[in-house]
Amino acid sequence: MSVKMVIAVVGTTAALFAGACTGSGGEPEGPSQPERAPAAAAEPPRDPPPVTCTHTATDQEQARALLAQAAPGQTLCFAGDGLRGADLEASASGTPEQPIVLVGRDTTVGSVSVEGDHVVVDGFTTADGDGLTLTGTGITARGNEVLRAHDDGIGCQCTDADIEDNVVREADGTGIRIEGERISVLGNDVSGSVMRESNDADGIRFFGTGHRISANKVHDISDDGYPDPPHTDCFQTYDNSSPPTRDVEISGNTCHNVDHQCLIATAEEAGQNNAVGRSRSLRFVGNTCAVEGSQAVLVRWFPEITVRDNEISGPDLANGVYIANGSTSATVVHNRFRGDYPMVEVDESSRPGLRVEGNQRF
């Protein structure tokens, strides 16, 4: 939903995995991407931990065979130039006690797709493909680098999943998109999302219940250079053709150099169907927002939002937090705002249950 408002493996296995591995492995072209300033450099990735491989694949035929025969408790490693550009598809499931672990090192694949339960995707680099596509329960994606995905960089339709310490660059659409129940999105770095075949360019989108989105960096997403520009936001949820969103906490993130909202939470479909409250209960706490939009936080048809202890700035802000369309029982407290504009504006329909206090300028 777009809203812009102005309101008053080469070499031996031993060499690749430091002696730890054992065993053996038996779209249409769209419009050109607009020119844009390079994204800020991410912090250097941490050295991956040692890996003990059950089996290792160094070409696509071996990879297909390993994935077809994957069993709980196995660690399957993928490495080498023979896998460059490969699309890896995993459909087997592990168990909570014995997940299947897929490890990528020293290779760049096109994509990794998981449709199964209790699978770990660790340390892959994907480029110019479909990124990471994850479906299932108990999935973990950690320490991956997703470059220039042709769709969302990391997509997770999941329950009880963890998306941790990944780097996502220049995804076509959204850097990380989650849908389901109890997904943790922690410590990721998302930047440079673009609109090519997609209909928007955002950092993190979230749908569903019980998610925790914490300590992420979302930055350098521009709407410049497009004939019909996207609405670039750091964090977004909406209910148009999407499930309702409830009990979500977004905390300790940084959002900077993004051309529209830091957070946009709307439920227009519910509003049109006299069902406001279907999406509710969102906590936006301790985030740093430096954005280019008309407001940093925009909430519509979305009751029970808390906006607390955030630091908000931007050169074009008409207001810091704007709450409207029956978004009742809102709490906006102890935030800090840089600039001369209304810190908080709330329309009449959203005033029942409103609490606004302790906000200040810096």
UniProtKB/TrEMBL annotation:
SMART domains: PbH1. Residues 23-50 are annotated as: Disordered. Residues 1-20 form the signal peptide. PROSITE patterns: PROKAR_LIPOPROTEIN (PS51257). SUPFAM superfamilies: Pectin lyase-like. Keywords: Signal. It comes from the Bacteria. Residues 134-337 form the Right handed beta helix domain. Gene3D superfamilies: Single-stranded right-handed beta-helix, Pectin lyase-like. Residues 29-43 have a biased composition (Low complexity). It holds the Pfam family Beta_helix. This is Right-handed parallel beta-helix repeat-containing protein.
